[in-house]
Amino acid sequence: MDFDPWDAAFVADPYPAYRTLRERGRAVWCEATGQWLIPHYADVSALLRDRRLGRTYLHRFSHEEFGRGAPPPEHEPFHVLNGNGLLDLEDPAHARVRRLVAKAFTPRTVERLAPAVERLARELTARFVAAGGGDLLSAVAEPLPVAVIAELLGIPEADRGPLRPWSADICGMYELNPGPESAARAVRASLEFSAYLRDLISERRKTPGPDLISALIAAHDDEEGGRLSEQEMISTCVLLLNAGHEATVNTTANGWWTLLRHPAALARLRDDVAATQGPGSGGRGIGGLEKLSTAVDELMRYDTPLQMFERWVLDDIQVGDTLIPRGAEVALLFGSANRDPARFAHPDALDLGRTDNPHLTFGAGIHYCLGAPLARRELTASFGALLDPAVPPLRLVREPQWREGYVIRGLRELLVEC
């Protein structure tokens, strides 16, 4: 199979194509996407940390200097929103914003959320079981991270309905060559979400609360960087929702699809959870948490939710025998890197006890996912609740189909009964 991110069969199972790419070399030109594909673990890991590459080039070059056309002016609301977030900022702006955000989004913040995460996971699971099952994606995988991020930001429950649609529309622009309809949806969502957050930030300035938006308003660095601008706060909040739940949703649904196709591994994991504590515990004994965390990391490695991370080449780089010039774009293939036999023993085998597992699902370098600890907390709580001995085993109703879209890769639905 060839690398074809618009082909449904490829999206359903890109891993055979990745094997072919790794055999072809360390950098493979793809005419269809206009990118250099980087399929090997060592190269992906190194280039994520290489400052000769960037998520943007505008901190060093104009569009004209870089040989690229400016985006259409009607797309500006999306690019303003995206360009002021940590995902696309480069140093020195990235370092300043990340330092300020880290003052608000601390490990203590994640720990404070832990009881709410556990409670929400158990409540969603209980409702799912009471209904006899259904679409695991829409009933459990999606609501949990959206509710957690909304709780983190202090978004009132009555206002949470548009969050998932806004996020989905904005994330559509991260796919390869999004069309005009996708761009229009992303622009509309960017405007609506930004306007909502601008009003919420204004309210929190007057009446601070125990939420992240209030903490972002208060965060300051007197020596280097002052405070976050309003746009930086808006972009940070949107990124936390988008990055903080897209990967979690797809890891949950894709992970359960993986487990259901590996019944022996699933049975062993259920036994491990049951052995640590009794029904209702969700495997929250120390041993259960460790085994769940190890299993979740393996599910993220085995079927990576974010398949590709794109970077611009700011200065010429050498990858193997290939000189990649300034102005080119590289596609770092996370899904291929996470299945590279040069780094992972038996990479195409699911090993839920794999402890040597430095997967690249959360990235690396300055753009390593700031929300990784919270994502792990949510995933452990979700899988733990569904694997609890009190919950009947899940059974697949029908084989799922994959959504269109390769970069952020996920299922349309996952119908199960219990």
Throw out a few tags for this protein:
single chain; 418 residues; alpha+beta; Cytochrome p450; five-stranded mixed beta sheet; 17 helices; 12 strands; 9% strand
Describe this structure in words.
The chain is of the alpha+beta class and 418 residues long. The longest helix has 31 residues, at 230-260. The protein has a single domain, classed as Cytochrome P450 (Cytochrome p450, Orthogonal Bundle), CATH 1.10.630.10. It contains 17 helices and 12 strands. Helices cover 51% and strands 9% of the residues. It has helices at residues 8-12, 15-24, 41-48, 63-66, 76-83, 93-104, 107-130, 136-141, 143-153, 163-171, 180-206, 212-218, 230-260, 263-276, 286-302, 334-337, 372-387; strands at residues 28-30, 35-38, 53-54, 133-135, 220-221, 226-227, 308-313, 317-319, 322-324, 329-333, 395-396, 415-417.
Rg: 21 Å
* Strand tally: 12
Instruction: State the CATH class.
Output: Mainly Alpha
Helix and strand sequence: HHEEHEHHHHEHHHHHEEHHHEEEEHHEE
Strand content: 5-15%
Compute the number of structural domains.
Answer: 1
Question: Do you know the CATH architecture?
Answer: Orthogonal Bundle
Reported for the largest beta sheet, the result is: 5 strands, mixed
* Helical segment count: 17
Helicity level = 40-55%
Query: If strands are numbered along the chain, what order do they take across the biggest sheet?
Result: 1-2-10-7-3
